[in-house]
Amino acid sequence: MSSNYMKLQFASRSENESFARVAVAAFVSQLDPTLNELTDIKTVVSEAVTNAIIHGYDGRPEGIVTITCSIEEDTVRISVEDNGRGITDLEQARQPLYTSKPELERSGMGFTIMENFMDNIEIATQVDSGTTVTMTKRIESKKCAV
């Protein structure tokens, strides 16, 4: 399969999280992923988009969240980007159960979930400039199964 990509931008509103999840799942479906793989991808997109909205933009709806998704052979690459406040201490933010918003009853498991459900995760962040989370996963396509 040759490479393919899509790019999606939307307002940083919490109601757009489910839209982002479904859009990425629809795009990735061309690889014929298993139900578990599709669920994993939908979950990490939800986590990354929610982080961008809640933490990047402090829940302000005037921000823009950008998702870029590409497929190269059997591997999907998903980037979720915001131009918000960035992460001050990335190592701390990656720790399980850490949240900078305990008053919102956040679980602090977003990055941990992304790391466990995907093959690779890279986080690029700069204070007052935003954060990009890029995740990759090889899809064990049912089309290739013998």
Detailed description of the structure:
The structure is a single chain. This protein is an alpha+beta fold. It has 4 helices and 5 strands; from the N terminus they run βααββααββ. The chain has a single domain, classed as Histidine kinase-like ATPase, C-terminal domain (Heat Shock Protein 90). It has a 5-stranded antiparallel beta sheet with strand order 1-2-3-5-4, with helices on one face. Strand 4 and strand 5 form a beta hairpin. It is globular, with a radius of gyration of 15 Å. One of its GO terms (molecular function) is protein serine/threonine kinase activity. Belongs to the anti-sigma-factor family. InterPro entries: Anti-sigma-factor_SerPK (IPR050267), Anti-sigma_F (IPR010194), HATPase_C_sf (IPR036890), HATPase_dom (IPR003594).
> What is the helix tally?
4
**How many β-strand runs?**
5
Sketch the topology as an H/E string, one letter per element. EHHEEHHEE
Q: Which whole number gives the mean pLDDT?
A: 87
The figure for the number of domains is 1
Oligomer: single chain
CATH class: Alpha Beta
State the CATH superfamily name: Histidine kinase-like ATPase, C-terminal domain
**Fraction of helical residues:** 25-40%
End-to-end separation in angstroms reads 18 Å
Could you tell me the radius of gyration in angstroms?
15 Å
Strand order, main sheet: write it out: 1-2-3-5-4
Q: Briefly note the structural class of the backbone.
A: alpha+beta
Fraction in beta strands: 25-35%
**Could you say what the CATH architecture is?**
2-Layer Sandwich
Residue windows where pLDDT falls under 50 for at least 5 positions = none
